[in-house]
Amino acid sequence: MENYIISLxxxxxxxxxxxxxSNSNIISIHxxxxxxxxxxxxxxxxxxLEILNSQKRTLNSVLKDFSFDKKSIKxxxxxxxxxxxxxxxxNNGLPYYNAIVWQDTRTSDFCKNLIDKNLSxxxxxxxxxxxxxxxSASKMNWILENCPKAKEDVEKGELLFGTIDxxxxxxxxxxxxxxxxxxxxxxxxxxxxxTLEWDDELLEIFGINxxxxxxxxxxxxxxxxxxxxxxxxxxxxxxxxxxAALFGQCCFEKGMAKNTYGTGCFMLMNTGNERIESxxxxxxxxxxxxxNQVTYALEGSVFVAGSAIQWLRDGLQIIENATASExxxxxxxxxxxxxxxxxFVGLGAPYWDMNARGGILxxxxxxxxxxITKATLDSLAYQTKDVLNAMMKDSKIDLKILxxxxxxxxxxxxxxxxxxxxxxxxxxxxxxxSTALGVAFLAGIGAGIWxxxxxxNIRKVEKVFEPNLxxxxxxxxxxxWEKAVEVIRSWTN
Length: 493
Ligand code: ADP
Fold this sequence. Notes:
Elements: E1 4-10, E2 14-21, E3 26-33, E4 45-46, H1 48-65, E5 73-80, E6 85-89, E7 99-100, H2 108-116, H3 120-127, H4 137-146, H5 148-155, E8 159-163, H6 164-172, E9 179-181, H7 182-185, E10 191-192, E11 197-198, H8 200-206, E12 215-217, E13 225-228, E14 231-240, H9 241-248, E15 257-261, E16 265-270, E17 283-290, E18 293-302, H10 306-315, H11 324-331, E19 339-341, E20 359-361, H12 369-395, E21 401-405, H13 412-422, E22 425-429, H14 434-446, H15 455-458, E23 461-465, H16 471-492
Parallel strand pairs: 1-5, 5-14, 9-12, 15-21, 21-22
Antiparallel strand pairs: 1-2, 2-3, 4-7, 6-8, 10-11, 13-14, 15-16, 16-18, 17-18, 19-20, 22-23
Helix pairs in contact: 4-5, 9-14, 10-12, 11-12, 12-13
């Protein structure tokens, strides 16, 4: 009998459920968007109950599609938007406040205050992260300081704090399991990534009581069980979305990396059982833990990637849809040397310049929409090279292949240019759902469906892009990009 795996992929804008067979084919997929709540400038919230309901609805939909015996569904994996935090009451199950989303910057001043107290180094040493409102801890503190009932219930031992995985698991297991995995815990600013425990000093800094936090498990472990139509299915895999994608891309060995081209880009490199300190503004984080084996990763992100293509579509209105950018870029005059630097909200690694703003450089009379579109796509590849250079410097690893996924990785022009720019192979898999596949893999390992070593045969390559621009020309183009970045930074700073 075939074995099937359910992946629940709880993202920032939608919840998805997917059923995979044991060859990683998608049997059924359903997706439901939910509301983005912006109460004030810089604030981003989700309704935790709406998230739960959207996830349950998509789960019911894939089950409805599933025509085989439900007993052949062996396990469930859960992957989720990271850092977003929920606080709820363990007796009535109700949240004290909306989920505060990773993008929310309401606690920037709180974090600045901690930076002024010279706590950045302690935090970096213990967590591998920078002291920033992006991560969960300051958001938890905000809930305690702003919801009197929440603070009161901490004393009574009734308040639970969890990232989205914990919130979903607690509800799906009928309130029996209050757990998370190491990859999600490592994004809270409260978890020591060397000792693999909630850290007392960090809890003190952020004013969080340890009793409010979930038990931290390995990524492929037993997380509880879900009753589906009287059939009991265990949850055996949990990981934050980017780590799950790294696993789904089978980047199991030290030095393997993936880049996800979504709204922004997220690049992660497996650094093995060794945690690498970044000197170039990257994060070190836990990739996953299987058995007693912990794997670490270096992570770098590009703030504006696919969203620059949305800007071409919705802002400039020069393309009908994202897919159309490929054809237009291929029609552009290759001699028109325009550079678009889409620093709409500043620049991330390795520049970390929040004041920078974007620019278009090198315009000539014959620059048209094709050239602007091409230059915007190019900017995704240049920014990826910026991050990858930082990663190679930190890790001293010379990358040979970059595995890719995410919406914009479908663009063949972009992938070819990426290969030209990095002078390495770009490997695009058939299954574009690396995130969901990653936790399906973790859950499948936990349920005994696969051995990790076998997964290389299950991941199937759709296309490999080889560099077809000579190294020297590639280098000259990149140097011009670096110069363009310098120009826009001197403009705004
Ligand atoms: P997210 O998970 O961040 O929502 P997705 O992985 O779904 O992102 O990718 C969507 C992004 O990819 C959008 O910003 C869109 O503009 C971009 N995109 C989608 N298809 C293409 C394409 N063919 N070429 C370039 N960009 C694309």
